[in-house]
Amino acid sequence: MSYITQNNAYTKYPGVLNDGRLFTDYTQNSIKNEKIKNDYGIGTNLAYREFLVKHADTIMKRNFSEMTLLNDTPIFVQETTYTTPHKFSGISDTSRPKGYSESELKSVYLSREKLNDLRKRKFIV
After folding, report:
1. What pTM, to 2 d.p., does this model score?
2. Which residues contact 118 (CB under 8 A, 6 or more apart)?
3. Are 14 and 5 in contact (CB under 8 A)?
4. Which residue would you say has higher pLDDT here, 4 or 72?
5. CA angle 106, 111, 117 (to 5 degrees)
6. Is the four-CA dihedral 23, 28, 31, 34 of positive or negative sign?
């Protein structure tokens, strides 16, 4: 199957795009809105806004699945690669968490901060 872009990691899936080219629908919004109002028997704009807010997650999932079926693209859920940042306990903490990278600028800054920390008188109880 041919896609707009290719996915380097998973060849049977389309490329990962952030601009939505694979899922673009050019139907007029007014037509979509009137169809939703008629399908669910919504009369006023206030009731329609409340309906959209209450069912936003369901509507987004349905739109996504309809566009994947329409464009014949398999559903691909990308794994989350982010993690929470490591929190150091202080300036003298020498632990190096996974993903920590040394740099010249960082080491100069940290050595200056360690020297400044040594100048301060420690509070003794």
Report:
1. 0.41
2. none
3. yes
4. 72
5. 125
6. positive
d(CA 5, CA 14): 6
Counting every residue written for the chain, the total comes to 125
pLDDT value for 52? 93
DSSP 23: G
What value does the mean pLDDT take over residues 63-75?
72
Enter the DSSP assignment of 122. P
Find where tokens 């041919």 sit. 2
User: How far is the C-alpha of 49 from the C-alpha of 72, rounded, in Å?
Assistant: 31
Tokens encoding 5: 């872009």
pLDDT in tens, 17-61: 656 655 566 788 899 889 989 999 999 999 999 999 999 999 888
Residues 108 and 115 sit within 8 Å (Cβ to Cβ): no
Tell me, what amino acid is at 59?
I
Rounded distance between C-alpha atoms, residue 91 and residue 57, angstroms: 44
